[in-house]
Design goal:
Layout lengths: L5 H19 L8 E7 L6 H7 L10 H13 L3 E11 L2 E10 L1 E10 L7 H7 L7 E2 L4 H14 L6 E9 L4 E9 L5 E2 L3 E5 L4 H8 L14 H17 L6 E10 L4 E9 L3 E7 L5 H7 L2 H4 L4 H17 L6 E6 L6 E9 L5 E8 L6 H5 L18 H16 L7 E7 L8 E9 L5 E8 L6 H5 L12 H17 L6 E8 L5 E9 L5 E8 L6 H6 L11 H13 L3 E8 L8 E10 L3 E14 L13 E17 L4 E10 L2 E10 L8 E12 L6 E14 L4 E15 L9 H4 L2 E13 L10 E11 L9 E13 L5 E13 L8 H4 L49 E14 L3 E13 L21 E10 L6 E8 L4 E4 L4 H6 L15 E4 L3 E7 L4
Parallel strand pairs: 1-3, 4-7, 8-11, 9-11, 12-14, 15-17, 18-20, 21-23
Antiparallel strand pairs: 2-3, 4-5, 6-7, 10-11, 13-14, 16-17, 19-20, 22-23, 24-25, 25-26, 26-27, 27-28, 28-29, 29-30, 30-31, 31-32, 32-33, 33-34, 34-35, 35-36, 36-37, 37-38, 38-41, 39-40
Length: about 1000
């Protein structure tokens, strides 16, 4: 066995010779070993020590055994030096191993004032110390030099770096602390320009961005700014079509007296490159996309040929199947080099038929799903065809068959350019010659000793009677090795062989597995913690001493730490990875994230929504408005070192003000996916014309993620709700106006199988929210509440999606207080309100459902006139259907939609009637159709919807002031008060909404 370092082998051989020389005088050779001692104390795991130590108490001492012991100890990688001594002990001998332990990198900590750039992570990375690798003090100076160069690249030429080492004798680790003293950052000065830029020097300097415009102050030096400046000069030249321009930073010269840096740029502008298309009109956008000269910024034949091929495929995909493309490069003239692509488009055709013949094993639909070619359809006016698509489809079909045992399959395609004698119509026929299917007659697995062979065999793809394919052998290899790596066999090897059996097209497969030596976890060592409590770390480490050393489990633990959201970096490694040890330390080094975060958001809504006004009761349906919105979120991460988060959230707009304090406790009781949170909330909402809603709430919520798609929530809330700015005389009743305490327990379940929550194309989304409020929870009102939602998404084609959503809700009051009906016992803020961009686009925001129709006798004896203001309801039904289609390019999408539904007074009044009976009937279904546009952005699609309400409700409203309204008595008409006559009003047919995100 070889030593890890040559000089160590020399040392071990030298001491072996000494022992041998002593043995020659028969003083120790062959003597019985009475004791084996180590100084300092032994650092190997007891299991490893037993394996590598050939000497044992009671045995006889031989020089060859001593040399073998030295080699084995060195092979573990845990020793810098070993010396073996022996001394007489009566008739026997005592053997003493004198060792100098090796040390390994346990972590790097960067201290001092580090003002970005560079950040602390960049400083530690530039030191190039790998966690768990061997450490030598002579490696410190190159690391310090590397950090110094990083500082200089960022203008910190006066920076000083000091290193300190802390050793952990138990795990043989070295912790490196780098203390940085930055000094002042240098500024740029006028760069030196070499070569031919073919641009004025002032233009080059302006392009670098190293100097502030107008005032001409030089900026501070940073590595990113330097690289960006060079790139900007390059881009400026490319903007003048100098695609072969080269700009290089030759050097940075620092003047310590002035604390200025002078960059030297070497510029070779090159000629202007003009890429043109002749004999066919091609936009510059298309040329830049398909001719790689623009991306590679160079001109050579391979790129020009690739551009020729790309343009040919592009025109074929546009229906010009007979297109021919060639190119020519004209000599440079007047500083211009012209590249011409000669394009002969030919006649435009349409792929009207795509035939697949010869397939018996696979259905035609299964094959078509894997093909790029497609005949003309609603969204493909000319079909989709090109020579590249045809070759790729042949390859895909061939791979499909070969993966299922058809080793001799052949796939060919023919093109009929005059299908059925019609010029411009193309038909493609793909002919499949399947050939025989090869099957596995016998599978033999050799070498499985420590694993469960039966369970392993049951998961292999190449079992007896299964199709034989090379991809199945590769899949089995990955499965077996992954299994062995997971169980602590990093040296496992897999070799597959096959040979024909006695039956034609049948094979025998043999897997030879070499398990290797199993590795175990000696211990898990953590470092780098400052605020975080060790108990939180220990609860998340599922790998214990004595467990198999699984790299997969090691990575899963690392992922779990990242999921806590309190660490900016978590490094993990196996200590001494190359050493011959069976028991190894697993290391985790943490870098804690900034504990405070601040985020600010801006938004707006443009739509028809209402705001309660005590001075205007004449516009019950609201009016078109613009509502800007600003939000702020301040969070304190890792509170008390427990991994908990305290956050303060606020939102302010013209229709809503909200503030909340939240305390979040992730992984409650150390259960994955279980989170507990406590919330204090204040909310003042003005988005309903009838009243303003104020809510002061305290709640506790337990969230449990049962699976990847299913989440459950239990929430207990206690809130005080009140109304203000009430403009309906009917509601001017103390019992309806006084604040109400609501104690409610909610259970919520969500099943999310969408492929993309922000912009889904397939899948389902179901939610159920069930709650009950009652006196047993300290509530002054008692009711049950259920809100169900189901949404599905169907991809009709690759880019067309049919989306639908159905929402149903019901509130059932019980034990109403004396003097209130069950309908009135549900406080206004707790009722269902609907209408708007996210629910029912037949209405403005929150304008659906029952309305104030007045009353001949108000509590107290005063009649009131109708106002038509929305009152909310105790039941709702919404159904939305959208057809989402591509409109312009990849980022603009069009939507055709139909919305139907309403908010109803109670569950018994839910009706699918199309027509309104009279001006006091609101329990019917309202329909709307419309068109919308979605523009994709990184934060979600920006949405604009234009809806036409087919059968909006009409109602009696009031055209006077609130004071005039109080003077009106429906039971005693007064001709001298013309404003007391109810005015017929209605919801407008046209509704417009502007917001962010898909409707559902």
């Amino acid at each position: 066995m070889q030593c890890p370092r040559k000089y160590l082998c020399v040392i071990s051989a030298f001491f072996a010779l000494i022992v041998a020389a002593r043995a020659q005088d028969k003083q120790f050779e062959g003597k019985r070993i009475n004791a084996i001692e180590y100084t300092p104390s032994q650092t190997l795991d007891p299991g490893d020590l037993t394996r590598v130590q050939p000497l044992h108490v009671g045995g006889l001492l031989h020089a060859s055994d001593v040399a073998d012991a030295i080699d084995r100890f060195f092979a573990t990688g845990r020793y810098e030096d070993i010396r073996v001594e022996a001394r007489a002990d009566g008739a026997g001998v005592i053997v003493l191993f004198v060792t100098i332990p090796a040390y390994f990198v346990g972590g790097i900590n960067v201290e001092g004032k580090v003002v970005q750039p560079p950040n602390r992570g960049q400083v530690s990375t530039s030191a190039q110390f790998a966690l768990g690798s061997g450490f030598r003090e002579e490696d410190l100076q190159p690391a310090m030099d590397s950090i110094t160069n990083l500082m200089k690249a960022n203008g910190l030429y006066e920076a000083q770096i000091r290193s300190e080492l802390e050793r952990d004798e138990h795990a043989q680790q070295v912790f490196i602390t780098l203390t940085v003293t930055e000094g002042k950052r240098a500024k740029y000065s006028m760069p030196v320009l070499e070569g031919q830029s073919k641009l004025p020097d002032s233009t080059i300097v302006r392009a670098t961005g190293w100097r502030v415009p107008i005032v001409h102050w030089w900026k501070h030096v940073t590595d990113a700014r330097t690289r960006q400046g060079v790139q900007s000069v390059q881009s400026r030249l490319e903007g003048q079509d100098r695609l072969t321009a080269k700009v290089q930073l030759k050097n940075l010269e620092y003047d310590p007296q002035r604390r200025r840096v002078t960059p030297t740029l070497e510029i070779a502008a090159g000629p202007k490159i003009q890429v043109k298309a002749t004999e066919a009109k091609v936009s510059r956008r298309v040329l830049k996309r398909y001719v790689p000269v623009f991306q590679q910024r160079d001109v050579y034949d391979d790129l020009l040929v690739e551009g020729k091929r790309n343009l040919q495929d592009y025109f074929q995909s546009q229906g010009y199947y007979d297109v021919t493309v060639d190119y020519r490069v004209r000599p440079v003239k007047d500083d211009v080099e012209v590249i011409e692509y000669v394009i002969s488009k030919g006649e435009r055709s349409k792929l009207v038929r795509l035939n697949i013949a010869g397939n018996k094993y696979f259905r035609t639909d299964a094959i078509r799903e894997r093909m790029f070619m497609a005949p003309a359809a609603f969204n493909l006016r000319r079909g989709r065809y090109s020579e590249a698509f045809r070759r790729k489809d042949e390859e895909n079909i061939k791979n499909l068959y070969q993966a299922n045992g058809f080793r001799d399959v052949k796939v060919n395609s023919t093109v009929d350019t005059d299908y059925q004698g019609k010029n411009g119509q193309v038909a493609v026929t793909v002919t499949i010659t399947e050939g025989p299917q090869w099957l596995v007659d016998k599978l033999t697995v050799n070498g499985v000793v420590q694993e469960n062979a039966k369970e392993l065999l049951s998961r292999l793809a190449s079992g007896m009677g299964q199709p034989f394919a090379e991809v199945n052998l590769a899949a089995d290899r990955e499965l077996v090795l992954t299994r062995y790596f997971t169980e602590g066999f990093p040296g496992a090897n897999f070799k597959a062989e096959w040979r024909p059996s006695g039956t034609p097209n049948h094979v025998e497969v043999v897997y030879n597995i070499t398990e290797g030596t199993r590795k175990f976890v000696r211990d898990v060592v953590t470092s780098g913690l400052t605020t975080t409590r060790q108990g939180l770390i220990d609860r998340n480490i599922t790998m214990k001493p004595g467990d198999p050393l699984s790299p997969i489990e090691e990575t899963e633990i690392q992922k779990r730490f990242y999921d806590l959201g309190i660490f900016s970096r978590v490094d993990t490694a196996i200590q001494n990875p190359d050493g011959d040890e069976d028991h190894k330390y697993v290391l985790y080094n943490f870098q804690e994230a900034n504990r405070y975060t601040l985020s600010i958001g801006l938004g707006a809504q443009v739509a028809r929504f209402g705001t309660p006004s005590s001075s205007n009761v004449s516009a019950a349906a609201g009016s078109t408005g613009f509502s800007p919105q600003i939000s702020a979120d301040i969070s304190r991460l890792n509170f008390l070192g427990l991994g908990h988060t305290v956050s303060l959230r606020g939102m302010y707009s013209s229709i809503e003000k909200r503030a909340a304090i939240n305390y979040s406790q992730p992984r409650f009781q150390n259960v994955e996916g279980r989170n507990l949170s406590y919330t204090l909330l204040f909310d003042n909402t003005l988005n309903v014309r009838t009243f303003s809603s104020k809510r002061e709430e305290a709640s506790v919520q337990l969230t449990q993620k049962f699976s990847k798609t299913l989440t459950g929530i239990i929430r207990a809330s206690y809130r005080r709700v009140s109304v203000g700015n009430v403009v309906i005389p009917t509601l001017l009743v103390p019992q309806l106006l006084q604040p109400v305490r609501i104690g409610i327990l909610n259970a919520n379940f969500a099943q999310d199988r969408r492929d993309n929550a922000g912009d889904p194309h397939r899948g389902i989304y179901n939610t159920a929210d069930i709650g009950i409020a009652g006196r047993f929870f300290g509530s002054q009102r008692s009711f049950g509440r259920v809100l169900l939602r189901n949404a599905t998404y169907y991809p009709l084609t690759k880019s067309i999606v049919l989306a639908r959503q159905t929402e149903f809700g019901v509130i059932t009051p019980f034990s109403a207080p004396p003097g209130l009906s069950e309908q009135e016992s549900v406080p206004l803020p707790e009722r269902f309100f609907g209408g708007g961009a996210d629910s029912l686009r037949a209405f403005p925001y929150n304008q659906a459902g029952p309305r104030d129709i007045g009353t001949p006798v108000v509590a107290g004896g005063t009649p009131s006139a109708p106002t038509g203001f929305p009152l909310g309801g105790n039941a709702l039904f919404f159904n939305n259907v959208e057809l989402r289609v591509p409109l312009i390019g990849e980022n603009i999408q069009g939507v055709l939609f139909h919305d139907m539904g309403n908010v109803f007074s109670r569950i018994g009044n839910v009706s699918f009637r199309f027509k309104q009976k009279d001006l006091q009937d609101f329990d019917y279904t309202v329909h709307a159709v419309g068109f919308g546009i979605r523009y994709k952005t990184p934060v979600g699609p920006i949405r604009g919807d234009l809806a036409y309400s087919i059968n909006p409700p009409s109602f009696n409203g009031f055209n006077g002031t609130p004071q005039q309204l109080l003077q009106c008595n429906p039971s005693m008409p007064n001709p001298s008060l013309p404003y007391c006559t109810p005015s017929r009003q209605s919801i407008g047919h046209i509704q417009f909404f502007f917001s962010i995100g898909q409707t559902f």
